[in-house]
Amino acid sequence: MDTILILDFGSQSTQLIGRRVRQLGVYSEIVPGDVPFGRTDLSGVRGIILSGSPASVYEAGAPTIDPRFYGLGLPVLGICYGLHRMTTDHGGRVAPLGHKEYGRARVEVLADDPLFARVPERSFVSWMSHGDTVAETPRGFRVIARSEGGLPAAFADPGRRMWGVQFHPEASHCEHGMEVLEAFVADIAGAHREWNMDAFFRSEREDLARRLAGKPVVLLISGGVDSSVVAALLLASLDHDAVHLLYVDTGLMRQGESGEVMAGLRDLGARHLHAVDASERFYAGLAGVGDPEQKRRIIGDLFMTVQREEIQRLGIADYWLAQGTLYTDLVESGKGVGSKATVIKTHHNVRSPLVEELRASGRIVEPLATLYKDEVRALGLALGLKREIVFRHPFPGPGLAVRILGEVTRERCDLLRRVDALFLSELRSRGLYDRIWQAFCVLLPLRSVGVSGDARRYGWVVGLRAVASLDAITADVYPFEARDLLEISSLITNRIPEVGRVVYDVSSKPPATIEWE
Fold first, then answer.
1. Which terminus of the chain has fewer CB atoms gathered within 10 Å of its CB, N or C?
2. 391 — phi, psi (to 5°)?
3. Which residues are the active-site residues?
């Protein structure tokens, strides 16, 4: 199968590049940017992309590339840091700007070039995220686009089949970004479009059958889309007697979700479905804890402890652990492919010490770890999951604990469950639920003065969050009609008297994350 090889230098959007390439129907594979040349399988590779990075090329310890990758005769595209890496490696110079150029920036195409052949305009709005610039272009390269500030936005050396862009064509905010990537992948590299979810399913099913043949596998069911898709994938790939689905009720789920989860798993035809109510243990473990990272660690460790105890009770020996980890979980937890990734927030199924221990033993299987949410949903539909399960809004592994700012208690969870259920119910009744990527409520750690009838009262403050996104790497606040927000706010304060004030979060990602903790 034709492949685009992506060298990862630690960018938060490296996997997004891979996803965009797969959207074009071409298989992509990501390897560390500093991988030794001889350790990379180049069979089928038609082009190479160098990713961005939080580093600067002139810093000590900046990630490097084996120069033999340049000499393969394959086309190479450098993105942001990849452009700077290519510049430095070929005798040019990169210098600091003195400020960050971040967000939308207009780019002017200066010359006809295959890289911009599919872009219908000579000027378009790109997406920038950098603090360095090309100060001296390497010999043999010519600048083919510049930013509105007069800085190089793209250069090319077609003779040596090398291109570089300062902007991020993989970002959804970049106009004609997909056209730029398509020109490189399809036109310049000539890669054939052979990749789709059916191909992924066939490959993953073969891999699961090979790795787990005759071995019991335990999947921790969280109730979300990801673990449901993994359950369907395991049951479609392995003997049903080898698949054990374990649902741990943490007490941190949405209203009515535990019953829905169990019913959905029964519909999959699972023979071994286990459930354990550990809510009191989680409430006790979280008592007095307000720090979000500490909450995530406690939940992750306790989740794994309960899981181990339950597996011992069930007598399942020499098992493998399956998880519904996505690449966004790995990226935000600093577990990207390269060694330079930074931690945005800890995901309990990624950085928990107990998970790390199992990961080190090689007994964890994460079949969705190269996919994004929209790809997971496409896979779920292909596996026959019900649409209402596949398109349920994402729900974090730590559950309501990271939507309650401050200490987590049963009473606060119960309150947030009621508010959240009312919010989502209103979105469905107004035909808005399927237009929104993710919507939820946040219980703030403060009370606000209000009036109920003729009496003064202090009620909890609740934040509403709703975003539109394609992949959770970037997200825009959902633009509600004012009438909808006003009516939903009024319903919440009238029907749930403990809430005295409702606010709407208008922050996009970045700079904010989708969840509050």
1. N
2. -105, 20
3. 80, 168, 170
428: Cβ–Cβ under 8 A, 6 or more apart, which residues? none
Those residues with Cβ within 8 angstroms of residue 492's Cβ, 6 or more apart along the chain or in another chain? 419, 422, 423, 462, 499, 502
Domain with CATH 3.40.50.880 in the chain: 3-188
Name the token pair of 326. 């996505």
- Which carries the bigger pLDDT value, residue 344 or residue 494? 494
- Coil, strand or helix at 149: coil
Could you tell me the two tokens for 431? 């035909």
- pTM reported for the whole predicted model: 0.70
CA distance 84 to 100: 15
Exposed (0-12), middle (13-18) or buried (19+): which is 450, by Cβ within 10 Å?
A: middle
- Closest to 90 in 3D by CA, of 134, 51, 39: 134
Separation CA 329–CA 341 (nearest Å): 12
CA distance 251 to 253: 6
> Regarding beta strands 142-147 and 93-109, do their DSSP bridges make them parallel or antiparallel, or are they unpaired?
antiparallel
CB count in 10 Å sphere of residue 31: 15
* Beta strands 123-136 and 142-147, pairing class: unpaired
Q: What are 440-465's pLDDT values in tens digits? A: 999 999 988 876 665 667 899 999 99
Q: Residue 218's closest CA among 390, 29, 363, 5?
A: 363
- Report yes or no: 247 and 278 within 8 Å, Cβ to Cβ: no
Altogether, the residues listed in the chain come to a count of 517
**Alpha helix positions (H), 183-291:** 197-211, 225-237, 257-267, 279-286
Say if CB 140 and CB 111 are below 8 A apart: no
Tell me how far apart the alpha carbons of residues 203 and 266 are, in angstroms, rounded to a whole number.
Answer: 26
Residue type at 334 in one-letter notation:
G
Are 16 and 186 contacting, i.e. CB atoms less than 8 angstroms apart?
no
pLDDT single digits (tens) 258-311: 888 788 778 888 899 999 999 999 999 999 999 999 999 999 889 888 988 999
Q: Please, are residues 209 and 239 in contact by the beta-carbon 8 Å criterion? A: no
**CATH code matching the domain that covers 3-188, chosen among 3.90.550.10, 3.10.450.50, 3.40.50.880, 3.40.50.10490:** 3.40.50.880
Q: Where in the chain is the domain with CATH 3.40.50.620?
A: 197-390
